[in-house]
Amino acid sequence: MDWFEEYESEIRAYSRVYPVVFETAENAKQTDENGKTYLDFYAGAGVLNLGHNPPSMKAAMIAYLEKNGVLHSLDMMTVAKRDFIQAFVETILRPRNMDYKLQFMGPTGTNAVEASLKLARLVTGRSHIIAFSQGFHGMTLGSLACTANEVFRNAAGVTLDDVSHWPFDNHTGGGLESLDTLRALLENTSGGLEKPAAFLVEAIQAEGGVNVASQEWLLALQKLAHDVGALLIVDDIQAGCGRTGRYFSFEGMGLEPDIITLAKGIGGAGTPMAMNLVKPEHDRHWKPGQHTGTFRGQNLSFVAGREALRFFEDDKLLSETRAKGEIMREHLQKLAEAHADKGYAVRGKGMMQALDVKDGALAKAIAHDCFEHGLLFGPCGVGGQVLKLIPPLTIPEDELLAGLEIFSDAVHRQTEAN
Ligand SMILES: Cc1ncc(COP(=O)(O)O)c(C=O)c1O
Questions:
Q1: In total, how many domains does the chain have?
Q2: 44 and 87 fall within a common domain
């Protein structure tokens, strides 16, 4: 432990909340170097939708390494990349009648968001972006300008320009009427609000506190974007790749985003990858090499990511996700009812479910209690008051129930102690 405290930067965050050294992991379990096993209801903040070390991906990566498959290739063509592209088109895009180009960039979510903003600005010749309250889009300056949380924004050290934040659907001041107000401002030549290059939105705000936008609101936002000549960018970096019980978090809502940002789960096994889905009419605005990145397209991620796509060849995993999501929701609902006087709220979709305990200090105490009893998860939302549970979609039902039990006990204990 001393090595971390003495030599690793003060920037450490999760390692302070979970002060053990992890050594091995399998599906929904993570074991520390002293042999204590934890149930993982955090899943790498949405990276490990298919669990830790999924056997099929592990085997494919080992085989790839053994045959000296090319590991690094900048954005050159490789067999691994072709296999991934083909599988993504055949498994995800074609069955959904979706016509998009696949753009790879540096392998983290913020890279995907940066590329989407840059393209929207190129396409429209405008600079202004409209993002939403409590949105989270990453830490590099362009994405950070769209991220709402002031703790992160204050670390920028420069002004974060060219972005306005409007209230998200179900936040104070939000909803359909508020989009009407926004429209009135944008359509009034003396409204004072610059027409945007894009609206950047999460259909379900994950870090922002598990806020689920309604279909109506998202469709109204899409219409507004079209009417004012702006692009609609949906950031599906955390809520996508199956998390909600559909491949995309907004699926089935009649939405056709101009750009969809993906990262986290797309690499399959925790192997980093980011990828934007871009409507071809916008993609043609890129000049070759205009947005580069040394690690755009890691072959091990393509190999693991290709295996991950096999989980979506039929509806088995997704229907299990919806069923397990129901179990989670019922469990949280009972907890909220048991403490009805506290006004706890349950929110979520599929296997992203959360209990809002309306108190950051209490949320912290619950997370610590869970950790002591062998369950990992991460609070989110304003002041960290929302307990977000995102176990791997592949978690066996008995482990899901065991984790929920630990969670309930901790909520009861800490609520009573509070
Ligand atoms: C919705 C969303 N967008 C973007 C990001 C940034 O991704 P990364 O941390 O990989 O840069 C995150 C990370 O949590 C996210 O949840």
A1: 2
A2: no
The answer on pLDDT for 1 being more than 80 is no
Cα within 13 Å of Cα(239), Cβ side = 31
Question: Are 131 and 248 contained in the same domain?
Answer: yes
Same domain, 276 and 398: no
What residues are in contact with ligand 1 under a 6 Å CB criterion?
45, 108-110, 113, 136-138, 202, 206-207, 235, 237-238, 263
Cα 116 to ligand 1 centroid, rounded to whole Å? 13
Ligand 1 pocket test, candidate residues 137, 211, 275, most atoms within 8 A of CB? 137
pTM exceeding the 0.90 threshold for the entire prediction? yes
User: Rounded to the nearest whole angstrom, what is the distance from the C-alpha of residue 343 to the centroid of ligand 1?
Assistant: 29
End-to-end C-alpha distance for the chain, whole angstroms: 31
Among 310, 340, 365, the domain-final residue is 310
Query: For position 203, which CATH number holds?
Result: 3.40.640.10
The atom number, within ligand 1, closest to the CA of 143 reads 4
CA of 136 to the centre of ligand 1 (A): 7
pLDDT digits (tens, 9 = 90+) for 344-362: 999 999 999 999 999 999 9
Output the CA 113–ligand 1 centroid distance in Å: 9
Contacts of 253 (CB under 8 A, 6+ apart): 203, 215, 218, 219
Instruction: Using the atom order of ligand 1, give the atom closest to the CA of residue 140.
Output: 11
| Spacing of C-alpha 280 from chain mean position | 24
Euclidean distance between CA atoms 274 and 250, whole angstroms: 19
Are the C-beta atoms of residues 254 and 245 closer than 8 Å to each other?
no
103 pLDDT above the threshold of 80? yes
Same domain as 390, residue 277? no
In a domain, 25, yes or no: yes
Same domain, 124 and 176: yes
| 249 and 326 fall within a common domain | no
96 alpha carbon to ligand 1 midpoint, in Å?
25
